[in-house]
Amino acid sequence: MKNELKKLKEQIKRYVKNFFEILMRREMRILPGQLAFFLGLSIIPTFSLVAYVGSLLNLDINSINDFFTNVFNENFAGIIIPTITSNPGLKFIIYLVVGYFVASNGTASIIVTSNTIYGIKNRNYFYRKVKAILMEIILITLVLFILIIPVFGSKIIVLIGYLNISAKIINRISFTINFLKGPISWFIMFILIKILYVIAPDRKMYGTTTTYGAIFSTVGFIIVTGLYSLYVNHIANYNAFYGGAANIIILLLWLYLISYVFVIGMALNQRKETLDLEITTKMKPLEEIRKEEELEKTANIKTNKNKQNK
């Protein structure tokens, strides 16, 4: 019993040590803010697309406007509504493509950072850009799912009541949203996060090596999103500090916090993989090995130069 408690204490101590080492990494000061910034850029095109789909379902424009006004503010609604009322066509498609292309710089930075964390050489720009766009689609799907189900689920159910469809269909949609809340939404979040962790580095990754960070990120997303949902559903009209921009500020803060959690999860995966490798192979830490390899390469270069001079 004492040995088991001792092992548990050592594991907790090692976990806490690794966690704080990760927080002190250089990329933790840059990537979360960068990722949150580009996610923020993708919010307008994403909500415009959602509003456009709602208009195709014969949802009243005034109801859509009221929804965005209540959840955010009049200025935000004033950006979204004109994109779906001014005969959206080719311009709307170009608007979405450009918006998501620019926003893909956020996932491109995830790829570069994950390669740095894992010590992998970056592949060519075109390959990384295509993968970044794919990851952007998955990441936007994740964010949109979180906003639609756990955060705005209750408000969307009310909004659906304005649809020109039968009560039976409305009840089914409401049942689906309520059903997806809780463990099922957590599982979907876990799968999407895990997929992002697997495809981010420019080398083959196995699903089992990313489970650790995916679990951490899922739990972090649930906690942060729960707090944001509490704000949206109960305190959303509180404007004491930022006035009409309060709801936008809280949305951006939520994006930053989930970005921070996501990056920590990615670093935890790499750290656990390194520790497992050190334990199973009884080898030196990979960071020391890399330093020794770099010193050896430098020494070889100097030796070759001296030979050439002779």
Distance N to C terminus: 68 Å
Question: Would you list the SSEs in sequence order as H and E?
Answer: HHHHHHHHHHHH
Rounded to an integer, what's the Rg over CA atoms?
24 Å
Structural category: mainly alpha
Helix content: over 70%
The gross shape turns out to be globular
Count of alpha/pi helices:
12
List keywords for this structure.
single chain; 310 residues; mainly alpha
Describe the protein's architecture and organization.
Helix 2 packs across helix 4. The protein has 12 helices and no strands. It has 310 residues and is mainly alpha-helical. It has one domain. The protein is globular and about 80 Å long.
Task: Set down the secondary structure blueprint.
Elements: H1 2-23, H2 31-56, H3 61-71, H4 74-85, H5 90-118, H6 125-151, H7 153-160, H8 167-180, H9 183-199, H10 211-234, H11 246-281, H12 286-309
Short characterization:
This protein has 310 residues and is an all-alpha fold. It is built from 12 helices and no strands.
